[in-house]
Amino acid sequence: MNIIDGKKFAENLRKKIAEEVEELKDRTGKVPGLAVVLVGNDPASQVYVANKAKQTKEVGMNSYEHVLTADTSQKDLLHIIKNLNANENVHGILVQLPLPKHISEDAVINAISPEKDVDGFHVVNRGRLITGQDALVPCTPLGCLMLLKDRLFNLEGLHAVVIGRSNIVGKPMAQLLLNEGCTVTVCHSKTKDIKSHTQKADIIVVAVGKPNMLEAEWIKEGATIIDVGINRVTVQAENSNESPTTKLVGDVNFNSCKEKAGGITPVPGGVGPMTIACLLSNTLKAFKAGN
User: Fold this and answer.
1) How far apart are CA 61 and CA 64, in angstroms?
2) Which DSSP category does 216 fall into?
3) How far is residue 66's CA from residue 53's CA, in Å, rounded to a whole number?
4) Which of 11, 72, 124, 258 gives the lowest tally of CB atoms within 10 Å of its CB?
C-alpha cells in the first residue's frame, strides 16, 4: 500500500507521548504544560486552538488557553508572553498565527523564550536548526520528516525537492532534509520549469497552497510525495438543482499521482494530524530539557 497514513502515525505518536507523560508524572510529580494564545476571532484559528487544547489534555498535559480580543495591543500581548516565560508550570508557548495587522509577528515570536518556543519559530531555534544543533523544530516540517523516515528509513543520498520557501514549512523542511544527508532543491514561484526538477526527485514535499498543482507527469516512478497543502475548493453538483459543495484537496493531484508514487500522503489524513502531534512532542521535549 503506497498511502502514507499520517492520521494513524499521529495516533501512535500521541499514545507514546501519553505513556511518557504518565511515567514522568509518577517520577517527578510534574506534567508538561502548554499555553496557547489566540488573538482575535478567526474561525479557522478558533477550531485549531480548540483541537490543540483537547489533544493536550488527552495526553495528560496541562493546557492553558488565553483568548484575547482582536484589538489587544502588542504591549499587552508581550506582557502576557513575559508572564508565561516566567511561569514554571508552562513548558511550551504557542501564539496562534496570523496575528492582527497592528501586531508584529516577529516581535511576538522572538519574545517567547527559545526553550519554550514549541512552534520552533524563534530565531535562536532557527539558528540551531541551520547549524545542526539540537533545536525545537517547526511542527509541520517535523511531522513530514517523521513520515518520510518511517517510510524510507534512511534518507541519506536521496534527492529531495521542496516546493515552497515559507519560514513555516519550506525553509525548515529543506534544512531538515539537508541535515538527514539529502541533496535538496528548493523550488518556488520564481523557479523556471519546476517539472524538470521534480521529475528527478526521490522525495517531493509540496507546500504552496495551489490545489492539485503536482500531476503524475511531474514525478518519477516510485517517488515519495508529502503533500502539505490544504485547499478548500468548490465542487459543482452533478444535478443542476443541487448547490455546489466544498471539499479539501492538497497541492498534489492525489488521484493522478497515487498509482505512480512509491508513497503519498492523502489530504485530509496525511500531514495535518501530524502537526498537533509534533506540537505535543515538542512540549514534552521542552519539559524534559528543563526538568
Assistant:
1) 10
2) G
3) 11
4) 11
Count structural domains, the chain: 2
Cell 538527514, residue located: 180
Would residue 193 show up in a list of annotated catalytic residues for this protein? no
119 is annotated as an active-site residue: yes
Same domain, 94 and 175: no
Note whether 150 and 239 are same-domain residues. Answer: yes
279 in any annotated domain? no
- The active-site residue out of 52, 171, 260, 285 is 52
Alpha-carbon separation of residue 205 from 22, 65, 154, 269, 285 (angstroms): 35, 32, 17, 16, 25
CB 9 within 8 A of CB 274: yes
pTM: 0.95
> Any catalytic annotation for residue 52?
yes
Backbone angle region of 119, left / alpha / beta, with phi > 0 → left and psi within -120 to 50 → alpha: alpha
Q: Is residue 249 part of a domain?
A: yes
Of 118, 53, 117, which Cα lies nearest the Cα of 278? 118
Q: Which residues are 184's β-sheet partners?
A: 160
How many Å apart are CA 251 and CA 259, to the nearest integer? Answer: 17
Residue pair 279/239 in contact by the 8 Å Cβ criterion: no
Residue-range definition of the domain harbouring residue 252 = 139-272
Dump pLDDT digits (tens) for 55-92.
999 999 999 999 999 999 999 999 999 999 999 999 99
In this prediction, residue 205 carries a pLDDT of 98
- For the segment 117-152, what is each residue's pLDDT rounded down to a tens digit? 999 999 999 999 999 999 999 999 999 999 999 999
Q: How far apart are CA 106 and CA 236, in angstroms?
A: 41
In this structure, the answer to whether residues 109 and 167 fall within a common structural domain is no
Catalytic residue among 55, 96, 117, 285: 96
Quick one: 79 and 163 in the same domain?
Answer: no
The one catalytic residue in 55, 116, 117, 119 is: 119
Query: Residue 202 carries which side chain, given as an amino acid letter?
Result: D
For residue 120, tell me if it sits in a domain.
no
